[in-house]
Design goal:
This protein is an alpha+beta fold. It has one helix and six strands. The chain has one domain. The chain has one helix at residues 2-40, and strands at 44-45, 51-60, 63-75, 82-89, 92-98, 101-104. Pfam families: DUF3301 (PF11743).
């Protein structure tokens, strides 16, 4: 019985290390995205830190996936601290909120043409609702 308990403990430890490595790589990607977007919009990323602040289930491209929310602080003029947030699915940036801009990646392929990557225009998302059909 001791061998089975040792094997189980080893599997649990390996799973924890694996999850930590995956989340560490995802955080590095989030830091890269935050730094790149702040530079693109003329903001300063403060403390060079990005922290995981939430996880949610989201319906994206026909599947339910986990979307991670990262929070960080930016400065517009060097004398202030403003909150910034970004959401990622895997290595894909799906949403970004900065003090001066709010961008979302369209959920549906037909909305991709209305995406605004380099401006302050926020594309409207279509509301897809199940219609109540009564006979």
């Amino acid at each position: 019985m001791g061998d089975l308990a040792t094997l189980f403990l080893l599997i649990v430890v390996l799973a924890i290390v694996g999850i930590w490595l995956v989340l560490s790589r995802a955080r590095d990607r989030a830091i890269h995205e935050a730094r790149q977007r702040c530079q693109q919009h003329g903001l300063q990323l403060l403390d060079e830190t990005v922290g995981l602040s939430g996880v949610r289930l989201r319906h994206f491209r026909g599947r339910r996936v986990l979307e991670r929310r990262y929070s960080f602080e930016v400065s517009i003029d060097g004398d202030d601290r403003e909150a910034g947030h970004l959401w990622m699915i895997g290595n894909v940036l799906t949403a970004l909120i900065l003090p001066t801009i709010e961008l979302y990646t369209p959920e549906y392929p037909e909305d991709a043409a209305t995406s605004a990557d380099d401006s302050n225009v926020v594309p409207f998302r279509r509301q897809y609702r199940d219609r109540d059909i009564r006979h």
